[in-house]
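Annotated sample (chain length 113).
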Amino acid sequence: MNETDWQDWRENLAEMMQAFASTHMPFGKYGPQHYPPRGLPIHQLPAEYLMWFKQKGFPKGKLGQLLEALCEIHCTGAEAVLIPLREPDSPPHPLRKARPRSFDFGIGEEHGK
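Output written by the structure step:
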């Protein structure tokens, strides 16, 4: 690779990382209906969801290209490149809604408590 090729590659990578950071999932189980107001940032989509798209087909257009690139990142085990895209000191979005935890084992007044 000559210097021009390396420069193009770095610019494309920087553009792709910016797109990962600024694009949110516009539909489906990680879309705005479940993750208001804009949907889950695509760089936080789980690998299983990306693999489902790989099997069924990625959407057309730029979103599909980004999801396919993210799938490749996950398949090669390079997820660490996505860590800097998170907000500083913020954990990733929870992918499951918190469920209330209460346990009632039927022990109560009838057992003298």
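Annotation: The chain has three helices and no strands.
Annotation: The mean pLDDT is 82.
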